[in-house]
Amino acid sequence: NGCRSAFFERGGVLHPIEHAFEDDEQIRVLIDRIISPLGRRIDERSPIVNARLKTGYRVNAVIPPVAIDGPILTIRKFSDRICSLDELVGLGSLPLWYAQLLSCAVSLRQDLAVAGGTGSGKTTLLNALSCEISTGERIVTIEDSAELKFAHHPHVVRLEAREASIEGEGAVTIRDLVTNALRMRPDRIVVGEVR
């Protein structure tokens, strides 16, 4: 929330960070230090940056004039652990009958859409559903920012969209990747996020 208030989230609860930044300039310096090694730039002409760090963290930075009250930096870390549908039932995240319905839909190769608000568990559910896919199937995942794991599956191709470079070139959209994925002999195409 800028230099006036900083927070971290744990277990779905926001906790304040005392004295995180002295001023907006400290946030700008941090933003530049994070995005520069990624070959990205942020300025008034391009005031928004979305990126994925090598660690897998997702970074979103927004600066004035778009961010009215000063620069904003959001860093999201996703768990490396993949929960199965059974584990989600055990945690009380979904009822058993619903997990069974989803498992059946996956095994019957039905089309599924997972929707929800930020932090509602969409990625967690998609990763759990991936455990239900036969290891003999070829999967192509397409995402804005790679979050899906599918690490247990032997036939996964992971594709990630890309914004245009500073020169305005080289953008690769979700639509481009879906078109390309159809040429890759997929048994399943999983689009991680549609906006």
> Order of strands across the biggest sheet?
3-4-5
- Please, what is the average pLDDT? 88
Overall SS class: alpha/beta
In the CATH hierarchy, the third-tier topology of the largest domain is known as: Rossmann fold
CATH architectural label of the largest domain = 3-Layer(aba) Sandwich
Fraction in helix: 10-25%
Radius of gyration: 19 Å
Counted up, domains total: 2
Instruction: Give the number of helices.
Output: 5
Describe the fold and architecture:
- The chain has 195 residues and is an alpha/beta fold.
- The chain has 2 domains: 6-76, Beta-Lactamase (2-Layer Sandwich), CATH 3.30.450; 85-191, Rossmann fold (3-Layer(aba) Sandwich).
- It contains 5 helices and 8 strands, in the order ββαβββαααββαβ.
- The strands form 3 sheets. It has a 3-stranded antiparallel sheet, with helices on one face.
- A hairpin with a 2-residue loop joins strand 1 (6-10) and strand 2 (13-17).
- The longest helix is centred in the first third of the chain and has 12 residues, at 24-35.
- The protein starts with 5 loop residues before the first strand and ends with a strand.
